[in-house]
Amino acid sequence: MGVAVLLKQVPDTTAKISVTGGRVDESSITKWSISPYDEYALENAIKLKESGYGDVVVITCGPARASKCLTEAAAVGADKLIHVVTESGSLDSIQIQALLSAAVKESSCDVVMCGKQAADTNSGSTGPGVASALGYSCVGAVTEVSIEGNVISATRLGPLGLEEVEVETPCVFTFDKGDTELRRPNVRGIMMAKKKPIDSLTSDDLGVDTSNSMVSVESHSSPPEKPPGQKFVGAESVPAVVNMLRNDANVI
Amino acid sequence: MAYEALDFYDIDSLLTEEERMVRDMVRDWVEERVLPNIEDACRDGIFPDEWRVEIGEMGILGAPLKGYGCPGLSYIAYGLICQELERGDSGVRSFASVQGSLAMYPIWDFGSEEQKEKYLSGMAKGELVGCFGLTEPDYGSNPGDMITRAEDRGDHFLLNGAKMWITNGTIADIAVVWAKLEGVIRGFIVEKGDEGFSAPEMKGKHSLKASVTSELVFQDCKIPKDRLIPGVKGIRGPLSCLNNARYGISWGAIGAAQSCFNSAREYSLSRIQFGHPIASFQLVQNKLSWMLREITKGQLLAYHMGKKKDDGSWIPEQISLAKMNNVDMALEIARMSRDIHGANGILDEYPVMRHMANLESVKTYEGTHDIHNLILGRHITGIQSFTREP
Amino acid sequence: MSTTVISESSNNSLHPITAQLVGAASALGGSITIICPGGIGATDAAQISGVSKVISVEGGCFNTYDCIAWSESLSPLVKDDLILSSSSAMGRELISSIAATKGVPVVQDVTNLAEGLLVTRSIYSGKAIEEVRISSPCAISLRTNSFEAAGGGGSAEITTVNVSRDITVAVKQALTKAGERLDVSEADIIISGGRGMGEPSNFSHLYEVADALGAAVGASRAAVDTWDDIPHSMQVGQTGKTVTPNLYIAVGISGAIQHLAGMRSSKYILAINKDPEAPIFSVADYGIVATWEEALPVLKDQLSEILSS
Questions:
Q1: What CATH number has the domain bearing residue C139?
Q2: A1-11, pLDDT tens digit by residue?
Q3: Chain B CB within 8 Å of residue A12 CB
Q4: Does C22 map to a domain?
Q5: Which of A57, B1, B273, C18 is positioned for an S-S bond with A80, CB 3.0–4.6 A?
Q6: What is the spatial distance between Cα C216 and Cα C212, in angstroms, rounded to a whole number?
Q7: pLDDT at B121
Q8: Mean pLDDT across the stretch B159-188?
Q9: Number of domains in chain B
Q10: Chain B partners of C239 at a C-beta cutoff of 8 Å?
């Protein structure tokens, strides 16, 4: 019993990203935050805890700086903090999921929550991947959950639209934004958070081999400069512009 | 565009994790709750009550006080809280300053055990609002000659007189009032509803419009004997409260200045004149560079002052310098930022004119700029020049 | 390299992205197998040129969506070194789970795919481009409209496989989303009107375009200040909301500096204004000099045409 929340620390969505020497310059990123969808996972986990469902264990996988997001989570009510220490950006999805799954097992939580995707890569591989690795069920794009016994009902945006689903634990939920209001930390929470120990684990501690990543970053680059604006005269140019929006800009 | 507070000398790296978290909490709150609503609050001339509730929920009131449900944060954290609140608006910071440094502090430091138990935890939660009555209509820079009097009537005190320019007065549940009892300045706790006590709001301000400013009127106001604050006599009582508030203001001013600097920087980069962003013109760059220089100096001053507050090695004259310098700097920056914004600078689309108008009050209250100069003058020369008497 | 493509469906038929997935796979060479979950679109899939085999997977679990049940049913049928899917929400979820089941890495939302398996994707919401080398076997989801679709005229063999797993996610009821309009702060596309709209009632034309695009409707301060019917919550700009959608359409907005401050960081900006000198054109990627009365009906027709195809 208990809820594990998988948090990823990402550059704040408003942060400037600069590329030097073919790599994103992490040192120039001034603000790192919990990935926004993960915050909804955390909020829902705390709500579940308040309805009597075990402790909230927050788990992050990342370099030393990532421990900050655990303390931030503790300030709003997370009970146990686990930091799986890895180097930034060096692992493939299988390795990350193996590390996180091992940490979830260690926490013995049977409910896992995370964002539907992280704001840095927008991938969304972790939730379903961890579910498969652990043999848990998985419900994606969830906005709300409530529990009765070991049955959790959730509101999700499925392929056919918004639905209410029921699933038994153990299960992984990936969260979308929804109407849930995030709680603000307060001074008492912050002071308690800083006293909370962070359990730092390495891949060796978890018995996961992280030596051969199947994925490696070749290069980063800045997005190509947009061409200068084009101006057309008359409503008859609308079809041409719509085509450009679709085929060049790829935004509709 | 995300708010990036100017921090040219990386003060951030000197902060503890806890201080940073408290700052970010307040910064986020200001961004979400104050900035979108501040112009309406100013137009309506109100301090929204939900701000009181939310500030209370954050647990930042009376920040550096320990025990009795108070937060027990460092003075640096208290400074950062003031900085972030005032980046939103000086009126919001004033609410917190008055509550924490002027109303909670004297109870915490000089109050009886019963008074502490009765008031402090509710005040820390924002459930009880306090105000501070020192200034009178005819006694501003010279509070020692106040005319508000308390008389001992055996089983109660009788208060007569009036206070003016009292932040939070009308919304306050309790007032810490300084009055002369047998010729000696003493502190009294007056509760809303006490017989003979009223707190009408002062209207028509062009400054601190989102803050409640009031008169406190005592006409044969009867208060029980246990409302006398026992632990301090003389002008030292109110002045010790002012030290804490002034310290907070020295940080708050930085927040207002950062806000004006950011607005000027962004505006000058997007405003095109003569075919180029005005940020590319030397006169504008000179102004921006001056702002950066002055804010950076102010930050170092405030940070070091905070460290001295935390280790207890400070003297009041140092606080005078910090308050005077930083408010002066912020006001100059607000005016300069208004210049850079051109005509747009007078619009409520930008925070600049609001900060400028607010800072005129901030320069005046808690010891005017000139009074702080006299405090320093006395410190330097050993000769007081407040009065003509020797 | 041989490839398995997980087909994408919508409204019970094959989604056009499936042909783009095949197009991307064809460029790498090798045989291409399409797996159609629930058998949807198998006949159409067989006609995509370059496809060697279609596996129509039929089973009870495909009547409702359960990512784990689906991936456990499909994974044993995937024999190739490269697995491709669309990067729709469901596409990503399913391929993540299949990849994890098969123990191969996955890279999502790829916009370019080259041999050696060098893939390109956008990271940090488009603020940087990442090139990643990935060794097969592996799984990759591809972004819509980034790859040339394979043509028709194929005639691949269709094998029907009956396989199902227990559903653990039970759908209790479909919910209807409250008819709330999207807020400008969370929309990918925003269409905003200014005082040039003439009357607040004319915002209805903006709403029609917004409905076609799934967009939010915003307004300039001039519009909000002038008309009580246009609430402050719609205001984009210095004292309104700062927005960064993929596409911002400004209609009848001259482009005061305060408005530009709230929207100039949008990825793409389309401006429609009758004044060719309006400052809004200085930040627009696409500018149309026309009245909204002329331009909006054409825009709406074009969008409904293009989005329904």
A1: 3.40.50.620
A2: 899 999 999 99
A3: yes
A4: yes
A5: A57
A6: 11
A7: 97
A8: 98
A9: 3
A10: 39, 348-349
* N- to C-terminal Cα separation, chain B: 57
In this structure, are B327 and B356 located in the same domain? Answer: yes
Higher pLDDT, C146 or B101: B101
Residue B350 C-alpha, separation from nearest chain A C-alpha, in angstroms: 20
Domain boundary among C100, C128, C162: C162
Could you tell me if residue B369 is inside a domain? yes
Q: Which CATH architecture has domain A3-224?
A: 3-Layer(aba) Sandwich (3.40)
Q: What is the pLDDT of residues C173-195, one digit of tens each?
A: 988 765 567 889 888 999 999 99
What whole-number distance in Å separates Cα of residue C214 and Cα of residue C208?
10
Residue A27 in contact with partner chain B when CB distance is under 8 A: no
Chain A residues with CB inside 8 Å of C306's CB? Answer: 242-243, 246, 252
Is C13 near chain B, with CB under 8 Å? no
Where a domain ends, among C97, C127, C162? C162
Contacts of A82 (CB under 8 A, 6+ apart): A57, A58, A59, A60, A70, A103, A106, A107, A198, A199, A201
Give the minimum alpha-carbon distance from B268 to chain A in angstroms, rounded to a whole number. 19
Segment A109-127 mean pLDDT: 96
CB pair distance less than 8 Å for B344 and C258:
yes
Q: Tell me whether C239 touches chain B (CB under 8 Å).
A: yes
ipTM: 0.94
**Helix (H/G/I), strand (E/B), else coil: C36:** strand
Asked which of B190, B209, B229 is the last residue of a domain, the reply is: B229
Burial category of A219 from C-beta neighbours within 10 Å (exposed 0-12, middle 13-18, buried 19 and up): middle
Q: B270–C258: do the CB atoms touch at under 8 Å?
A: no
Q: What is the mean pLDDT of residues C287-300?
A: 96
pLDDT at B216 over 80: yes
State the CATH number of the domain containing residue B216: 2.40.110.10
Range of the domain at B242: 236-381
* Region of residue A151 (left: phi > 0; alpha: psi -120 to 50; beta: else): beta
Whether residue A225 has pLDDT greater than 80? yes
In which residue are the tokens 């194929």 written? C154
Residue of chain A nearest C137, judged by CA positions: A214
- CB A138 within 8 Å of CB A102: no
Q: Take residue B389 and report the two structure tokens written for it.
A: 């008497």
Same domain, B206 and B268: no
B375 pLDDT exceeds 80? Answer: yes
In 10 A of CB A47, how many CB atoms? 19
- Domain end marker among B75, B96, B124: B124
Q: How far A186 CA sits from the closest chain C CA (Å)?
A: 26
User: Rounded to a whole number, what is the distance in angstroms from the first to the last CA of chain C?
Assistant: 32
Mean pLDDT of chain C: 93
pLDDT in the model for residue C180: 67
**B326 lies in some domain:** yes
More confident residue, C42 or A179: C42
> What number of C-beta contacts closer than 8 Å exist between B and C?
21
Q: Is B127 a catalytic residue?
A: no
Q: Is residue B347 part of a domain?
A: yes
Give 3-state DSSP helix, strand, coil % of chain C, rounded to 5: 35, 30, 35
